[in-house]
Amino acid sequence: AMLRLRLLTWDVKDTLLRLRQPVGDSYAAEARAHGVRVQPEALGRSFQEAYGAQSRRFPNYGQDQGLSSRQWWLDVVKQTFRLAGVREDGVLALIAENLYRDFCSAQNWEVLPGASETLRRCCQRGFHMGVVSNFDNRLENILRQCDLRHHFEFVLTSEEAGFAKPDGRIFKKALQRVGVSPEQAAHVGDDYTRDYRAARAVGMHSFLLRAGGHGEGPEVPPEHVLPTLSHLLARIEK
């Protein structure tokens, strides 16, 4: 039976947009511009460590502990370089400011194949459309720069909502924005826990983008799996 959906909500990172290059490469290039040489691979590893530690210590950009997301990110960048052996605080402050600014632009993000066309077709079908993303307040600008913002009625970030996926309250806020019930809505994302399972837990439909096929993660009914975004409308309409 065709799903009677009124609202589609979308994850962004690795669903609609992806980084043009690994984080370590971007960080190394910015450091080089300041005369600091660090291996991209080392920076990639230390970024994972710094980001993980910061996320555990200050969840959802530390807003409950009085941090701004900007300060949260500046600290992650500086700690990434410190872990990779760079100690000059003055140059680190500059590098961090520049990276915080540059990750807000289309020079670091690219639209995933099929994303623009799929969003356009979903809008044509008359669905309400919104973003639900564990992102900071730069997301509106990134979507605008990548020419995707106009597809959405709202952009709900975890920073704005005060809750991060898989917390169901962020999905409930999205449903309230449009005034639809969970069974009239579906979420599209690439993460089994934060996207697929979390949306289903509040009673929404959900589709899991699994570009790599069926190797990774728990079993998901095949009709809920999207090998590419272009499969979405066929799944909804069948």
Structural notes for this entry:
The chain has 238 residues and is α/β, with parallel strands linked by helices. It folds into two domains: 136 residues, Rossmann fold, CATH 3.40.50; 88 residues, Haloacid dehalogenase-like hydrolase (DNA polymerase, domain 1, Orthogonal Bundle), CATH 1.10.150.720. 45% of the residues lie in helices and 13% in strands. It has ten helices and eight strands. α1 packs across α2, α2 packs across α3 and α3 packs across α4. The protein is elongated and about 60 Å long. It holds the Pfam family Hydrolase. This is Haloacid dehalogenase-like hydrolase domain-containing protein 3. Belongs to the HAD-like hydrolase superfamily.
Summarize the structure.
Belongs to the HAD-like hydrolase superfamily. The chain is 45% helix and 13% strand.
User: In total, how many domains does the architecture comprise?
Assistant: 2
Q: Helix proportion of residues, in percent?
A: 40-55%
At the first level of CATH, the class of the largest domain is Alpha Beta
The pLDDT mean sits at: 95
Major sheet strand order: 5-4-1-6-7-8
Low-confidence stretches: none
Count of strand segments: 8
Characterize the biggest β-sheet. Answer: 6 strands, parallel
Number of DSSP helices?
10
Shape: elongated
Strand content: 5-15%
Q: Helix and strand string, N-terminal first?
A: EEHHHHEHEHEHHEHEEH
What's the CATH H-level homologous superfamily of the largest domain? HAD superfamily/HAD-like
What would the CATH topology of the largest domain be?
Rossmann fold
Give the CA-CA distance, first to last residue: 6 Å
Structural class: alpha/beta
Family: Belongs to the HAD-like hydrolase superfamily.
InterPro entries: HAD-like_hydrolase_domain, HAD-like_sf, HAD-SF_hydro_IA, HAD-SF_hydro_IA_REG-2-like, HAD-SF_hydro_IA_REG-2-like_cap, HAD_sf
Protein name: Haloacid dehalogenase-like hydrolase domain-containing protein 3
Pfam families: Hydrolase
